[in-house]
Amino acid sequence: MNKNYTGYNVEELLNDEYFIQWLLAPDVENERYWNELREKDPELKLEIDQARTLVMHLQQDMESPGFSSEDEIAVWNQIKVKTDKNKTRKKRFRIFRIVTGVAAVICLCFLAVSKFYMKDKQDINYLAIIESTDQRSSHTEDVELILSENKKIAIPEKESQVEYDQDGDINVNSQKVESVSKEKKHAEAFNQLIVPLGKRSSVTFSDGTKIWVNSGSKVIYPMVFEKGKREIFIEGEVYLDVTSDIDRPFIVKTREIDVKVLGTSFNVSAYKSDSNLQVTLVEGKVEVKTSNDHSDILSPNQQFDYDTKTNEATVQSVNVDNYIAWKNGYYQFEKQPLNIVFKKLSRYYGVRIEWDEEVGKRTCYGKLDLKEELGDVLNNLKDATAIPMQFIYKDDSVKISMNP
Amino acid sequence: MLVDESQIKWQQFISGDDDSFSWIYTTYARKLYRYGLCFTSNEEVVRDSIQDIFVYLYDNRTKLEFCDNIKYYLFGAFKNNLIKAIHKESVSEDLVEDMPFLIELTVEDQYIQNEQYVTESKKIEKLLSLLTSRQREIIYYRFTQGMSMEEICGLMDLNYQSAQNLIQRSLKKMRTSQIDMNLFLTLLLALQ
Predict the structure, then answer these.
(1) pLDDT > 70? residue A162
(2) Cβ–Cβ below 8 Å for A11 and B168
(3) Contacts of A334 in chain B (CB under 8 A)
(4) A365: which of A163, A213, A291, A342 lies 20 to 30 Å off by Cα?
(5) Ranges of CATH 1.10.1740 domains, chain B
(6) Which of A164-168, A211-215, A353-357, B17-21 is the least confident region?
(7) CATH number for the domain whose boundaries are B5-98
(8) B139·A300 Cβ contact <8 A
(9) Domain at B109-191, CATH from 1.10.10.10, 3.40.50.300, 1.20.210.10, 3.40.190.10
(10) Which of B147, B143, B137 is nearest to B35 (CA)?
(11) Contact (CB, 8 A) for A272 and A257
(12) Which of A62, A76, A301 sits opposite B25 (nearest CB)?
């Protein structure tokens, strides 16, 4: 933008990103910039106008319909015919599956009831596990995979993948780190993944279920899933893609709520430091239960929100992208107060961010690429929202205030 | 940087919403049709490809992932399908490199009375006809469809540098041809 465009001809202009951006996506800023140049430099004005004419024709003269309305509708009807045919097939199949599913659930219910009467197995005390590791933990900046009392694996990368394959081998970032011998595989053994601020990881379990783990989160899970259920405990934020297994419902436990699924994709946000917990469903069906036995069933694109201060639970429809984009390395938001945006960025990058209330209460829309450095992301945010922010970078923090 | 309505619709579509499927069709079918006609004048083949793509999407919706660039995805899938269909149709063994790319500028009714506009349009079409198919194709993606270099590289299977070079060559060719044309016209006028 601080380029000197004097002497540019049509060709050179059409090779320039900023010029093209003005032609294809005009906004207040680039309109002002290029029109000023046209006024100041008459020779450049000729070239600019010629280039603009060319592109305008390429765009406008191609906008004409082409597809006649009758053709458009005719093709659509064909599509409907072909997809309806497949739909009826799928419907029959789906009904069949539900029938099997119901049978399994009934069986499980019986089991659950008899367990209650037998009272021989206690609920796993996940919080105790967390507390004992907290005491021993070295509180490093690395992601930690804790396999047993004595074995801890440190993962320094910002993004990492942990995979449990069917033979019992554990791979971290495609490298084998542990082989679980048959003797070690007993239901009591738990693994723990601790992801500090600024890092992200993912775990693929032996059944194929994949969990993406966001910054500042913990996941506790058994080495081998039980026969009747697949249960894990999380604190923080995770996105799950659960493989279907009608005989073993997948249960995600957090401090306050339990989420039960059969096979589906959803996001759970349950940070200890947040007063609200959210479960966002992308696909499938989940049942969310709170500690006071209130339960809700979610359909796709619905979000369950639990306020830990008032114990209020609400369900609403949302744009799921705003809540799951992080797993693909983006942060997307609509009408979000900057308070929340900064808090999430701070967690994601592991950098302390302070901001003035005046900036924090402003709301905006945006989509940020989290693969970029925090400085660039903040600059992009400032440009996109046109809010005059000022950033002061210190050793380990950023202070954001309003530009006077 | 703004949240794209198309992304929301895509997400809803793969989550099972049929209305979003209709939205995607009404938004992109026409663009795809116009795009398809750049590769062949056989309207039926183009229509069939559009049908194939959308039926494929619907049948496989549960397997599809979150998509942040629907237009690019559709263009790519459509181009692949169409090129294969065109090869099937043609009797001769045309090489992929010989794949024609035609840009036809049609002046809209509202501009038809404007003589200057019509002349400009014809001139530009003449300039485009002097380019190779690949050159026309990249100009189309860059300026008519406003695609990014990344998307262009994906659709044309080029690396960044090659794409840059191709655009530059195309623009240069158009530029010099225009000068030649202007010179030619001036000469003509001078001789009269």
Answers:
(1) yes
(2) yes
(3) 3
(4) A213
(5) 5-98
(6) A164-168
(7) 1.10.1740
(8) no
(9) 1.10.10.10
(10) B137
(11) no
(12) A76
| In chain A, domain spans | 10-58, 69-121, 134-322, 329-402
CB-count exposure of residue B143 (10 Å: 0-12, 13-18, 19+): buried
pLDDT band at A295 (very low <50, low <70, confident <90, very high): confident
Say yes or no for a CB contact (<8 Å) between A67 and B33: yes
Average pLDDT over residues B65-75: 89
Higher pLDDT, A396 or A132: A396
Average pLDDT, whole number, for chain B? Answer: 85
Q: What is the pLDDT of residues B117-154, one digit of tens each?
A: 888 888 888 889 889 999 999 999 999 998 999 999 99
Helices (H), A119-202: 126-136
Count of pairs with CB atoms under 8 A, one residue in A, one in B: 130
The residue length of chain B stands at 192
**How far apart (Å, rounded) are the C-alpha atoms in residues A242 and A234?**
15
Give A127→chain B minimum CA distance, Å: 34
Residue B35's pLDDT band (cuts 50, 70, 90): very high
* Candidate from A62, A74, A82 with C-beta closest to B34: A62
Q: Is residue A45 packed enough to be buried (19+ CB in 10 Å), middle (13-18) or exposed (0-12)?
A: middle
Interchain pair B108, A300: CB under 8 A: no
Residues B108, A71: C-beta atoms closer than 8 Å: no
A210-213 and A352-355 beta bridge pairing? unpaired
Q: Calculate what percentage of chain A has a pLDDT beyond 70.
A: 83
Chain B CB contacts of A283 below 8 Å: 14-16, 62
Complex ipTM value: 0.82
Q: Give the lowest-confidence range in A92-106, A118-132, A179-193, B102-116.
A: A92-106
Distance of alpha carbon A60 from alpha carbon A65, whole angstroms:
11
Provide CATH 1.10.10.10 ranges for chain B.
Answer: 109-191
Write the class of the CATH domain A329-402.
Answer: alpha beta
Task: Determine whether the interchain pair A328/B66 forms a contact, defined as Cβ–Cβ distance below 8 Å.
Answer: yes
User: What would be the CATH architecture of the domain defined by A134-322?
Assistant: Sandwich (2.60)
Amino acid at A270: A
